[in-house]
Amino acid sequence: MSCLRALLCLICPPLAVLDKGCGSIVLVTALTLCAWVPGVIGAILVCKD
Questions:
Q1: What pLDDT, on the 0 to 100 scale, is given for residue 1?
Q2: Residue 18 and residue 20: Cα distance in Å, rounded?
Q3: What single string gives the DSSP state of each residue in 4-44?
Q4: Reported confidence tier of residue 48, pLDDT bands at 50, 70, 90
Q5: C-alpha to C-alpha distance for 18 and 21, rounded to whole angstroms
Q6: CA separation (Å) from 11 to 28, 37?
Q7: How confident is the model over 9-41, as pLDDT tens digits?
Q8: How far apart are CA 41 and CA 32, in angstroms?
Q9: Global pTM?
């Protein structure tokens, strides 16, 4: 994961997973709407590949 992607995971998690598919976008968006921290954690886990 690049530094830019990691920064994007912290600032706007749904934007960081746009290229990972519809399911991950929906999941990270739902987590971000519930609370910001779970959305960031979900985005980091999805983007760590």
A1: 74
A2: 6
A3: HHHHHHHH-HHHHTGGG-HHHHHHHHHHHHH-HHHHHHHHH
A4: confident
A5: 7
A6: 13, 11
A7: 999 999 999 998 899 999 999 999 999 999 999
A8: 9
A9: 0.87
- The pLDDT of residue 49: 72
- Contact between 43 and 28 under an 8 Å Cβ cutoff? The reply is yes
Which 8-state DSSP code applies to residue 48?
A: T
Inter-residue long-range contacts of 37-43, CB under 8 Å, 24+ positions, other chains counted? 39/13, 39/14, 40/9, 40/10, 40/13, 42/13, 43/9, 43/13, 43/14, 43/16, 43/17
Structure tokens at 7: 């920064």
| Predicted pLDDT of residue 27 | 94
Q: Are 23 and 12 in contact (CB under 8 A)?
A: no
